[in-house]
Design goal:
Blueprint lengths: L3 H7 L4 H4 L1 H21 L4 H21 L6 H26 L15 H4 L19 E4 L13 H18 L4 E6 L5 E8 L2 E4 L19 E3 H14 L11 E9 L2 E10 L6 E6 L1 H4 L11 H13 L2 E7 L5 H10 L8 E5 L10 E4 L9 H9 L5 E4 L5 H8 L7 E7 L3 H12 L2 H6 L1 E13 L5 E3 L3 H6 L10 E3 L3 E4 L2 E4 L8 E12 L2 H8 L3 H10 L5 H10 L5 H8 L19
Helix pairs in contact: 3-4, 3-5, 4-5, 7-8, 12-13, 13-14
Length: about 575
Amino acid sequence: MLTLGDGAFLVSPWKPFLLLIPFFPWAWLVSRRLDKHAARFLLPRESWGLGHLIAGTLAVLVALIIPLKGDGAIFVGMGVMLVIFAADIAAFAIVTNKDDRVPEKHRINIANLFSGGEVEKKAKGPQIKSGTSSLVMRASDKTVFAVPPADAPEYQLRIAAENVFTRALAARASQVDFTPGPKDGIYMVSVLVDGVRAPLALTDPTPNKDGTPPPPPGIMSAADAVRVMNVWRGAAKMDVADMRKKQTADAVVEKADKKTRVRVSSIGATQGMRTTLLIEPEAAVRRKPEALGLLEPQMAELKKIVEDSKGVVLLTAPLDNGRTTTFYSLVKMHDAYTRNVQTLEIDQQDVLDGVRQTVFEMKAEGAEFSTTARTILRRDPDVLAIAELPDAVTAKEVAKSEGERVRVYLSFRADSALQAIQIYVKQVGDPELASKNLSGVICQRVLRKLCGNCRVAYQPNADMLKKLALPADKIKQFFKKGGQVLIKNKPEVCPACNGVGYVGLEGVFEIFSIGDAERALIKGGDLMALRAEWRKRGLPTMQQAALRKVMDGSTSVEEMIRVTTEEKPEAPAAPAPAAAIKK
């Protein structure tokens, strides 16, 4: 039982303040030293913050409820607090000192703990100043990713990360990829520029001071690549310690008054972590149907398919050929305010007004992608656009949908409209079921548009026109890439395209609606007859659409050949696993 003396002790006006004597130094140390140390070396800052909070709360509670009487009880409580605080600090030092991200000279010890363990100071001379940076990196919650001190090794990593970004912007890249190289200890840094992948030049193409050639473009040591990737992951406030789980987050990069959104994605693989930087991802997928590159008869066919609003429509393209852009454009052709329009996506690239977007997270346990698709279909949507085809079960669920009641767009990889039909039928496993609800097929690729500032006109020879099946008397000129312009009568690299000769992308399409006659051919497995049926309708094939763009000067013969004659697999390839899917 508590006595009157005990009660007096509990309400003593001065004794509880004694507990603040050990609390304030510990709190100062955590906030001014340990937290900054974790932020500087990209350690799991939030996890450590939670651990410090638990330790502080536990220390205060134990000190207040310790079952001792008399004036000495408060001092025993203070001793217990000191033990808990010391254990918390020791645990942080022991664990973080073993982390490879913390250089040996910056590891915490008793000598440098209160003098700035995470910020090395010289014994004499001025204190170290923070480094300068040309870019400001912010997470989506506007948290600024601090620049390390100028003499710290992490400062050079920050500069290297900025160098990748600024060089990618200068090259007009829409995407940067860090991937393990063909040899151990090497990473490849590549960019996607107008749909074409190329190694990123990380240094200027000039010889070194000793006369040796510069390193080949796009090559970085694995150790440096991982650290640079972690700079970007840290800027987006990812869990940098987890290098296996798939993570995606946004960061904003500011330079002067210009802000650029960057979507950072990383995933572990057998060879090592892979990281992708998507530059302005929303802008890349926002195009009106009229700006996709459709020819006039193809636009009419597309509108016919959309207005039909029932059955299954296949939307396909090879990797990195604009499938996501067309996917969003198709969805927006339906009025989401008068109809129930939904999407099922794995990597959401944009927000669609009025559309209910379901993002499926790939997990070891939980609902399958096909189960999620079936659940949505049972809710009676008017339109469901499925952005990926990760497995055969999903294809079967789509094939079994109520074709007269719902329009389903199913998006996956394929090289042609005919191959799209082959893959879909193979995945469903039943030609009759697969053909029952098919209403259309769309396949596309993207080709580069000639730079209007430096393209060069020329007269094609008779042999070329014969190979292209074009009348020699009606073709006056084609255009080819230039790359140079005359400035003060001297040839200079074209400033509009950086000497590449191309600027921007445009789609080339195959678009066919599917009626009863085509469904019967698909059911019977006669795909050659299906191709002949499409030709009878006079709609352009992909090759014909590309040739039309050569004739109107939008692109070159070389670009048309590159896009339309790429090697294709001998047999239809199954859709890629969802965890590895890229648009």
